Here is the input.
Amino acid sequence: MKAGKLIALGFSGILAAAGVTVATFEGQELTGYVDPVGIATTCYGQTEIAFVGKEHTGEESFIF
Here is the structure.
């Protein structure tokens, strides 16, 4: 049981670090745009909620 908790703790640390890394490289774009490969993108690289020209608040960027 102790090993399982350690694995879960390590995995959550990796996920947190990945989130910070993605946010750093993606940047925050509050208005939807088409990225270089032709995919509508917004906030910190989200594509599921992205519509070109739609604006989001800074709070919405963290929620999505």
About this structure: The mean pLDDT is 81.
